[in-house]
Fold Peptidase M10 metallopeptidase domain-containing protein.
Amino acid sequence: MLLTTLFTMGFAATSTHSTTAEAKTSVKIVWRHKVRPAATYQMKGIKSKRSYAYSAKLAHEKFRLSKYAHKQFTVTYQQKVKVHGKYRVYYYAKNTANHKISGWVWRGYLTKASNKQTNLISKSKLNQLISAAPDLQPDKQVLSLNKDVYSKYATIFNKQYNVGNFAAPGVFFHDHATIYVEDSALQSNVNSAIDKWNAALGADVFSIGSKSNSTLTVGFGDGTAAGWDGLFNGTSVQVDQTHFNDQSYVSANTLSPAFQQKIKALSDQASQLLANTNAELKANRENYQTQLQLLNSQLNNASSDSQRDQITQQINDLKNHHHITDQQIRNDYNTQLDQIRQQIKDDYNAEQESSSASLETNYWTTVITHELGHALGLYHTPYQSDIMYAPTDNESESTPSPVKYSWTEPKDPDATRSYETAELSSRDINRAKLTKLLGYW
């Protein structure tokens, strides 16, 4: 669910023309949020040697602005501060040639760079690149385009790769989110989820923080009635507490591919048994009716009492035989059906015994990794080998997103399900790399 509230923090800032001493003046941060997508600005021709960019708390000089006159900077954040009763807006700017040259700059010193876009590919060319790449899988070419392509064609990328800007402003700062875990029972799973994303993306994207120093929380919620085990709402991840505390929840609701094949075979066997039984009952009934019709005809044409008595006895014997045979067919069916049912029960018990505690652990780690994926801007896929898999494209508890196509069943039904291994797929990883280029984290 995409929230609209702004993430705010309170710390020291400075006015545009302040010296280092003035920068220590107590100020009030009115708001701060990310610029999405990042914009390119040019430093104005500044002659004053007393104008600087400042550190995070705007208390230390980072670099003299006059040294970078007419140089280009990328703006990723902006904040409004109140100093001596006056309001000013600052941009967090990075020099495009050297990202180490960065700091908070009063917006009056920056001017929007020319919007003349170079090395931009056309919309049709972009669609060709996307079509040539695997389904929902941004490949190397798609991930190495001119940065302006991502801002210009963001809506195309969103729909073609099922992504969007889902995290609330302030969740990510400098491409990083700090997580506070509300319940220690979740700590291990959260740590594993963090390690998986950080290792996959090669960066410190998530880290553990405290209640007072965090931008994202993970805790328990009640999703049993609504039908979710994990939920991301823009600023927090919730895990259904009832199912989490049920140590047999995952194994009791998980059928391995091998077991599913056994069930299908036994189901087919039961269906064939029913068909064969119905055919036997029909043949027995038709044979009975044919013989009964013949005996009734003979009875009508009998010339003596002894003949009639004899035929009547044959009719009674036929009826008894038909009844016994009919009951025997039904009893045989029930016996064989019970055997099939018992086989299913035995196989199911064996399945449960083979399910280890690691399955439970992997499942809940997958749930949290999945929800952190939403924070990174990833919507669902129909591939059950993906951490971001969902059985359908329109799950009501998820943040709405444009999708490439609809689905109601997995496109890789024979693949290992992600929650069995709790491993990110290349599709998960590359989509997350794309959302970074789009400025969603």
In short: Confidence is low (pLDDT under 50) at residues 1-24. The first strand starts at residue 28 and ends at 43. Residues 257-354 form one domain. The chain is about 40% helix and 15% strand.
